[in-house]
Specification:
mainly alpha
């Protein structure tokens, strides 16, 4: 349950409670359920209405589908984590989501370690450090673009329909139900498998990015100094540079 939902539930229940206090409190309207016939009628009707409002209002809010958290180019790490956590109820992608959350933490840790090591060799104002920092930032951008694409797929994925189709397909019940033809059922199943394939491959792409950062970290962790121009010739930097070029190519 997200923060907005909790606020709305709290506002509803506190509002109904406040209305009851105002009606029955001796210091306010002071309606007496055991008083005159008019007070009894009004008080009883108010209790029924407020009780109905309480039950129906809570039901509507709790049964209302949660809105997907918007993810854009300027979203923060926390935005991505929150958006992924919103999809923890999707059993089809449970392991992927756990891995993606872990990948985000590992990316942040590796990038911080790389920058800390470079600051032992370069001053933050040096061109060599700034070039390297820009490369790391671009790698991080590619990483989160992958996650943004995954979140869009998770937003669109209808797990209830997928489970229904899978159950019907596995049991062969579609031949007897008459609801869908076998061809339609197979096409729907293929579409959902494309969602699953995409999420799996995009998650693997991010793991490849982390592996390239590991290789780079291994190279620079044993260095005491780097001469001008040597940074660009390091095997780890060449791999990352190729990754960035490839990502730009596919973007276009």
């Amino acid at each position: 349950m997200n923060k907005d939902m909790l606020i709305r539930l709290l506002a509803l229940n506190l509002g109904i409670a406040a209305a009851n206090i105002a009606v029955f409190s001796s210091g306010l309207l002071a309606v007496d359920l055991f008083g005159s016939a008019l007070e009894k009628a009004f008080g009883s009707a108010f209790l029924v209405l407020s009780g109905s409002g309480l039950v129906y209002g809570n039901y509507k809010l709790l049964s209302e589908p949660e809105k997907a958290i918007p993810i854009g180019a300027k979203s923060t790490k926390e935005d991505y984590v929150e958006a992924l956590n919103e999809h923890r109820g999707l059993e089809t992608f449970e392991r992927n989501i756990d891995l993606l959350l872990d990948q985000i933490e590992r990316l942040q840790k590796k990038n911080k370690t790389i920058r800390d090591i470079l600051l032992q060799i370069f001053n933050a104002s040096e061109i060599s450090y700034q070039k390297f920092d820009a490369v790391i930032a671009e790698v991080e951008n590619i990483f989160f673009k992958n996650i943004r694409s995954i979140i869009n797929k998770l937003n669109a994925f209808d797990e209830d329909d997928y489970n229904f189709i899978k159950k019907q397909r596995n049991a062969g019940a579609q031949r007897n139900s008459g609801a869908f033809s076998e061809e339609i059922m197979e096409e729907k199943f293929k579409v959902y498998n494309e969602y699953i394939r995409f999420v799996k491959e995009a998650t693997e792409d991010n793991e490849q990015i982390l592996l390239k950062l590991d290789k780079l970290l291994l190279e620079i962790s044993g260095l005491n100094c780097i001469e001008s121009g040597e940074l660009e010739q390091m095997a780890g930097m060449i791999e990352i540079d190729n990754l960035i070029k490839q990502a730009k190519y596919y973007k276009n």
